[in-house]
Amino acid sequence: MTTSINYNQYAIIPYVNYSDFIRTTVEKYQREQKKEKTNQIASTSFKETPDTQSVTLTLVRHGETTWNAIKRIQGQLSYYTEQDGTVVPITLSDKGRQQAEQIEQKLRTMKFSRCYSSDLKRAVDTAIIVTKNLNLPILQDSRLRERSRGEWEGKFESEFSKASQAEKQNIEGDESMCERIFSFLNHAAAENPNGTVLVVVHERVI
């Protein structure tokens, strides 16, 4: 039997403004992913069968970081080396830690078989907070990383918005990003048949 994901729901998602929670279903997710290449990946990755086992995903976006607050591009960075050689960690802001604490209160009575997190610091730091009363190990997975923004990482969104398309090179494409995310989802379904898992990720992954 081939195990794949039959999405039941996406639950508790802090999205866009970091404080709203959106409950949605996979049908909405798929409507938002109507690009041809994305659909090709989805159709080859997930095959509906009578024996398909289901997994419920509870997706949580990481809390606001100090870089989110100043609109600085993080991409796949956890640390950044400034021009003077100083290595700066990208940390949750005070607001971001408060957001994670609020999510922890909403999740503390829920039951999960596993917790997965992007291996980027801001996601792991959020996962540590939201799981503190769940008694779950945090399984870090690089497939859950934010989209790579290439040479734009460390720069500001205002700079990026003024750049020409020719200057916006080496940014991870939709196909590459979806391939790694769907690879993770198949893995999660196989490891947690008929289970519920907590996944701490990034805005563009959601």
Question: Brief description of this entry?
Answer:
With 206 residues, the chain is α/β, with parallel strands linked by helices.
Number of helices: 7
The N- and C-terminal alpha carbons lie at a distance of 28 Å
Structural class: alpha/beta
- Gyration radius over CA: 17 Å
Give the CA-based shape: globular
Instruction: Give, in spatial order, the strands making up the sheet with the most strands.
Output: 1-2-7-5-6
Mean pLDDT: 79
Topology order in helix (H) and strand (E) letters: EHHEHEEHEHEHHE
In the predicted model, the low-confidence regions spanning at least 5 consecutive residues are: 1-31, 35-50
Number of E-state strands: 7
Bin the strand percentage.
15-25%
The major β-sheet equals: 5 strands, parallel
Helix content class = 25-40%
Describe this structure in words.
The protein is of the alpha/beta class and 206 residues long. It is built from seven helices and seven strands. The protein has helices at 26-32, 36-45, 66-69, 94-107, 121-130, 157-162, 174-191; strands spanning 6-11, 54-61, 79-81, 87-89, 114-118, 138-141, 196-201. Strand 5, helix 5 (121-130) and strand 6 (138-141) form a beta-alpha-beta unit. Helix 2 (36-45) packs parallel to helix 7 and helix 4 packs across helix 5.
